[in-house]
Amino acid sequence: MAETTTVTTVWTTDQVMALAPDSSAQRAARGLAGDRAWLETGLSANDDLPPTVWGLCQGSGTTPYQTAVDLTEPAFKCTCPSRKFPCKHALALLLRWASGSVADAVAPAWAQEWQASRAARSALATRVAERADDVPRESGTRAVPSEKAQARRADRISAGLEELDRWLTDQARAGLATVAKNGYAHWDTMTARLVDAQATGAAGILRRTSAVTGSPERLLGELARLRLLIGGYRRLGDLPEDLAASIRMRVGLPIATETVLAGPAVRDRWQVHGVRDEIEDQLTVRRAWLRGVVSGRPLLVLSFAVAGQSLPIDLLPGTEIDADVCLYPGGQPARALIAKRHAPPERIHAVAGAAGIEANLRAHAEALAGDPWLDYWPMVLDAVTPVRDGAAWLLADADGNGLPLDAAAGEPWRLVAVTAGRPATVTAEWSAGGVRPMGVWSDHRLVRL
Fold first, then answer.
1. Which of 225, 251, 277 marks a domain boundary?
2. Would you give the DSSP letter of residue 345?
3. Edge-to-edge strands, sheet with 424-431
4. Does the keyword Metal-binding apply (predicted)?
């Protein structure tokens, strides 16, 4: 790991606010960001510490809250009783730093002890992982499924997909009009059977399909994708490895994190172009879209949280990180894990990969040809403007091309306000529902939408 220094790019207010767990935390943080509540603040000038903003904030009690933020990840500490993460004190401290109100200073003992404990835990985890890698797989000390267990799962998945194939045949025989009239119970029963068969990926596709019954064209396309997935799984041994890996992933066969991290690493300066959260089957799923400055390659970093858990907040839209990533096999765009960071995140100075609408659609078509089950695709749209088309909205370019905005995202008034009717570079997520803007380049920074 490269050594970190106290020199780090100051974040913008938008980047700080993007960390807030909800709007009430944002409002509270703004109210606390003034001078009155803070007794001391500083940005660590210690050579042996990663960049750390720290402060003492006077609360309702006699003892001030000890608040610190490691800017490298970021990571947070606060002695307040709040269950929100990060809390309003950490956000307010970052707002003060972003505004230039925090000077360099030697970190107090409590902040140094916090960082030392984090470093010790990280070192212990590394040693445990290294010892685990040295243990032979057949010793049974690692939780690796046996060949028999993997074969049993494959048999269950095959049986579940065969049942899905019969179910799809019944839907085609009944006709789309009849399928569209069926209630959610009709879909939930088949989805539950796929979950029982451990074909969780196929279950997810079927669950999302039930939400588009009002559009016969989209319904037919989703049912056809499922039928194609079944056919592909039957012929896994005859397919190219990349396509076979995509099918395994789309069906729901898990890939261990250790297996991914054991693969080759790809180093680049990875820009965070947008983050989007969705609720899927009682899980919060976060999609973070990255793009390499040198390679121009798009990446997807996924994270999950059950109710009551917080999601990782180490990837801030509008920043870039010099890092090694390891890629999951199959799928477009490649799903990745961040294996090693070489420096703290820095602010983006120019958006990588910007291109016109036609070029973005061509890239999507090429990706779709390699992975027909692709649901989302990241776009970096150069010189586009939000315009009305009747009751709908489009992102249009100077050549007259336009992409419809996803109606589920609501009215794009924030994008309209930032662009003020002028062409701008927009980072977005493209799906069958349309395009969802995630960020817009304005005043030399990426504004999160």
1. 251
2. -
3. 402-404, 392-396, 377-389, 424-431, 434-442, 445-448
4. yes
Residue 273 Cα to chain centre, angstroms:
10
Question: Would you say residue 140 lies in a domain?
Answer: no
For 203-240, write each residue's pLDDT tens digit: 989 988 988 888 888 999 999 999 999 999 999 999 99
Can you read off the two tokens belonging to residue 23?
């709007």
Contact 282, 253 (CB under 8 A): no
Report the pLDDT averaged over residues 56-62. Answer: 89
Tokens of 165: 């194939």
CATH number of the domain where residue 294 is located: 2.40.50
Cis peptide before 86 (omega within 30 of 0): yes
| Predicted confidence (pLDDT) per residue in 256-296, tens digit | 888 899 999 999 999 999 999 887 767 788 999 999 999 99
C-alpha separations of 220 from 72, 208, 348, 373 in Å: 47, 13, 41, 14
Q: 101 to each of 38, 96, 163, how far by Cα in Å?
A: 11, 5, 63
**DSSP bridge pairs for 302:** 287
Does a structural domain hold residue 135? no
3-state SS record for 179-212: HHHCCHHHHHHHHHHHHHCCCHHHHHHHHHHHHH
**337, 303 contact by CB (below 8 A):** no
The total domain count for the chain is 4
* pLDDT on residue 47: 65
For the whole prediction, is pTM greater than 0.85?
A: no
Q: What is the 3-state secondary structure (H, E, C) of 122-164?
A: HHHHHHHHHHHHHCCHHHCCCCCCCHHHHHHHHHHHHHHHHHH
Where in the sequence is the domain holding 261, given as residue range(s)? Answer: 257-347
What is the Cα–Cα distance from 339 to 40, expressed in whole angstroms? 35
- Does 338 share its domain with 369? no
At 344, list the tokens.
């703290």
The rounded distance, in Å, linking the Cα atoms of 9 and 69 is 14
- Residue 239 in tokens: 């397919």
| H/E stretch holding 250 | helix 241-251
H or E element at residue 52: strand 52-57
